[in-house]
Amino acid sequence: MKRILKMLGIVLVIALIIMQFFRPDKNNGGYESFTLFEKETKVSGEVLSILKKNCFDCHTNQTRYPWYAEIAPVSYWMNDHIIDGKKHFNMSEWNSYSVKKKSKKMDELIEELKEGEMPLNSYTWIHGSITKEEKEVLIQWASMAILNYEEALKVSLK
Questions:
Q1: 73: number of CA atoms within 13 Å, CB side?
Q2: What are phi and psi of 122, to 5 degrees?
Q3: pLDDT at 73 over 80
């Protein structure tokens, strides 16, 4: 039994070493494509600050990577979070969304904030939590954006 555990330990260490050489691609697409989202949703300086601090890493094409993101398996775990976050809401791909989808995404943002689902606990443990006041600012901003999109939908249906 000891021999099996020792072999298993050796295999695990070798696997972790090999993983260091095969890392996932980094999310470094830049902020240029964020401009449309910023303009269209009327992002204020305060909202931008909150988004940068709490949302950009997983919901844009640009992530700030901490030092520990260079170590596998953490790099794979973070990559999965980023891919999943961008799949649900990607401010950098805003121009590819229809007006109806934009409104729905902003509504989902409000819902996630109200339910305390975003940002993820695993993110806030390290990066700090979003305050109640910051949540309220985001909810008010997103609510105004929804009204603008609903208005645009009414105009397009006429």
A1: 7
A2: -65, -25
A3: yes
Q: Is residue 14 part of a domain?
A: no
Q: What is the pLDDT of residues 77-131, one digit of tens each?
A: 889 888 998 999 999 988 888 888 999 999 999 999 999 888 777 777 777 788 8
Is 76 inside a domain boundary? yes
How many residues would you count in the chain? 158
Tell whether 78 is covered by a domain: yes
Does the pTM exceed 0.85?
A: no
Q: Which domain holds residue 46?
A: 26-157
CB burial of residue 14 (10 Å; 0-12, 13-18, 19+): exposed
**Number of structural domains in the chain:** 1
Residue 43 located in a structural domain: yes
